[in-house]
Each structure stands twice: as C-alpha cells, then as structure tokens.
Design brief:
Structural class: alpha/beta
Number of helices: 16
Largest sheet: 8 strands, mixed
Order of helices and strands: HHHEHEHEHEHEEHHHEEHHEHEHEEHEH
Distance between the termini: 54 Å
Number of domains: 2
CATH architecture of the largest domain: 3-Layer(aba) Sandwich
CATH superfamily of the largest domain: NAD(P)-binding Rossmann-like Domain
Strand order of the largest sheet: 3-2-1-4-5-6-7-8
CATH class of the largest domain: Alpha Beta
Length: about 375
C-alpha cells in the first residue's frame, strides 16, 4: 500500500509516470529529510523546488532578516517580508507551495556548539552559505556524521557545484580547499555583486543533485566540480580527488573534534585587532562635523566606479582599492586622509596598505558610505 495520498499522487503525477522515479522514488522523497544551510540566494530555489518535489522534511538554518537588497535574487522572499526572519519568510512560502512538507526552522547562528545536533537529524546537507568559517564548519560536521554535503557558491557571473561525500569515496571541502584564503582576499557578494539570476541556476543544480541522491538515480557530482559561467553560458567540469592526507576525511584524520572556525579563517578577534591597530576609525557623524567645521583632510573613496555612480559623499576622491598602490603618489603623507568604502572592510585594507607606504594620519570611516546614508544623509540611496 502506497504511503502517498490521492492528493499527493495527483500532485506528483509527472514524477510518478517516470520510470526513474515512479511510486517508489516518490515515496523515498517523502521519507527524506534535507537541511538547507542558508535561506538566501541559493536557499531560495533549493527550498522552493525541493518542497515542490515532495521532500518530506526540510530544515532551514539562517540567522538573518530579509533586506531590500536581497530581493533581486532571493526569490522565496517578497517585499512584504522585509524585516522578517528569513527562515520564517521561507517557511510561509513553502507552506503555500506544498503543505505536505514539514519545515523546521533554526533562526540561530550555526556554530560548533549546535551544528552536530542540527545536522544529525537530516539525510542530506546542502551548503548555501557565503562565508568560509561556516563552509569549513558544515564540511567537518558533515564528514563526522557521514552526511553528503551538496556544495554551491556564487560570485558575480560565476558559480560552482559539487557533492562532497567521503562515504561514497569522494572528497570533502578540505580536499578541494585545504586552507582558507587570507581575510579579505576573496570579496563577498556584498562587495563584488552577483547576477540576480545566477543563484537560481546554481541552486537548481544543487536541488537536482539532492533529488538524484534521494531516489538513487543518475551519476552524482561526487569527485566532480562543475563550474558555470553565465556570461559565456558555459559549463566546465574538473575532477576532484579525495586527499589521503586530508585532516578530516583522509586515511589518518587529525581533526577529531570541531575547531574554532572564525580563528581558523582569520576573521575572529585577532583579525579585528589587526585592523584596529592599522589605523584609527571615524564615524559618519564625526566626519560630517569635520566637514562642517572646515577641517582640512582628504576623503578617499576606495569602492569601484560602478558603486561611485550609485552614490558618493560630496568632496570624495575615487581611488579603487585595487589601484591604491599604483596611485599612492596622488596622496600626501602630510595630509589627514579619511578612507571609505561601502561598509568599511575594503577601506580598512586600504588603510593598512597606505600604512606600508608611510601614511600615519589615516582614518577609516566605520560603516562606510552606508553609515553616512543612515546617520547623515537619509536622502542618499543605499545598496
């Protein structure tokens, strides 16, 4: 006797008539549980299509609220959801798509204290995060628990997808990326941007891999890294082998318990102290007071030209971060210099770079131009 109701048989009828799925495959989907790490760009298509496909239980992990800047790509959320927790917004949308799906939400930051307890209740983990500490955390926890980890990443026009599953003889994330990049070396989507439709493509590839794993059909992307470029509309595939010396999934693992991933990736307290020691900070209100008082200083905007076109602080001079070293001769070490970017991270790196050239009177605008728009000029567009 099938576990599917008459309503479910009608709903999934186009699956049921496929020999690769059929009643048996659909019942596997109904019995399956999938954990989505992130309810944003990748999590949106993942949640919608996996729920529509009939995955019985979905877990949503995210500790963020919906923002206007999310809406061009995080299509599970609506304008009316701005300000609401992403997991609650996504849960409401899933209920509209398929009320048969059980949704569990985790509106909390994922860390080494809770990750094993959350992951253990799911068959498959799908990584839709955008930061390195969480990627290493999810990878290590998935390996320890023997869970398949379907990985995806996006940036501007490029995407990557693979399935990390040492249990099937494949590699893990550490086999592909043994060490994280230096802090700030790889810009985030907030700094570099992302084509709005790109997470739809990459997220659907991840969802396809999940369905294949659940129903046991096809050839999963284990040991294969799929690279997608939207500008060229091209796909490339790279072979990725399991590293026998990998510290977590190798023949003689040295990582026996979860570590401090913020520290491992250099984005913890030590890195913040390094930024703080490289120069002073100034807030937007103080900068406005300096301008009003006629204080002499040079305001340098280290964002990209396309960001400059969106908004700019009056009197600023544009020198993108990547051009600082080549154009350092345009600045004078005798001047007070205030640097700013979008939120403050790139200007902190510019401040450190200028310090190596002997600039000692530099200030980083805390919160960047976004803080200026919030605290000084509310008419300025935010992005």
């Amino acid at each position: 006797m099938s576990s599917l109701s008459n309503e479910e048989i009608l709903r999934y009828s186009r699956h049921l008539i496929m020999p690769e799925v059929g009643m048996a495959g659909q019942e596997k989907l109904k019995a399956a549980s999938v954990l989505l790490i992130g309810a944003g760009g990748l999590g949106s298509p993942l949640a919608m299509y996996l729920s529509a496909a009939g995955v019985g239980r979905l877990g949503l992990v995210d500790f963020d609220v919906v923002d206007h800047s999310n809406l061009h790509r995080q299509v599970i959320h609506a304008t009316s959801s701005v300000g609401k927790p992403k997991v609650e917004s996504a849960k409401a949308r899933i209920a509209e798509i398929n009320p048969n799906v059980e949704v569990r939400t985790y509106n909390e930051p994922l860390n080494r204290g809770n990750v094993l307890g959350i992951l253990k209740d799911y068959d498959i983990v799908i990584d839709g995060t955008d930061n390195f500490p969480t990627r290493y955390l999810v990878n290590d926890a998935a390996v320890m628990l023997g869970k398949a980890n379907i990985y995806g990443s996006i940036f501007r026009f490029d995407g990557q997808v693979t399935v990390f599953d040492p249990k099937r003889g494949g590699p893990c994330y550490r086999c592909l990326y043994p060490e994280p990049p230096p802090p700030g070396m790889v810009p985030s989507c907030a700094e570099g941007g992302v084509l709005g439709v790109l997470p739809g493509t990459v997220g659907l590839l991840q969802a396809t891999e999940a369905v294949k794993l659940i129903i046991g059909q096809g050839k999963p992307l284990v040991g294969r890294l799929l690279l997608f470029n939207a500008l060229d509309m091209s796909f490339r595939e790279l072979k990725v082998r399991r590293d026998k010396a990998c510290p977590i999934c190798g023949e003689h693992p040295t990582i026996k318990e979860l570590i401090d991933y913020e520290q491992f990736c250099g984005v913890g307290r030590g890195n913040e102290e390094a930024h703080a020691s490289s120069g002073a900070e100034i807030d937007a209100v103080t900068l406005k007071e300096w301008k009003d008082a006629g204080r002499k200083f040079v305001l340098v905007d280290v964002r990209e030209p396309q960001e400059w076109e969106i908004a700019r602080i009056p009197g600023a001079r544009l020198i993108p971060l990547g051009q600082i070293a080549a154009r350092v001769h345009e600045l004078d070490t005798a001047d007070e210099i205030v640097l700013h970017c979008h939120h403050g991270s790139r200007s902190a790196r510019a401040q450190a770079a200028l310090g190596k050239f002997g600039f000692r009177k530099t200030y980083n605008l805390a919160g960047g131009i976004d803080a200026w728009a919030q605290d000084v000029d509310p008419t300025m567009p935010r992005y």
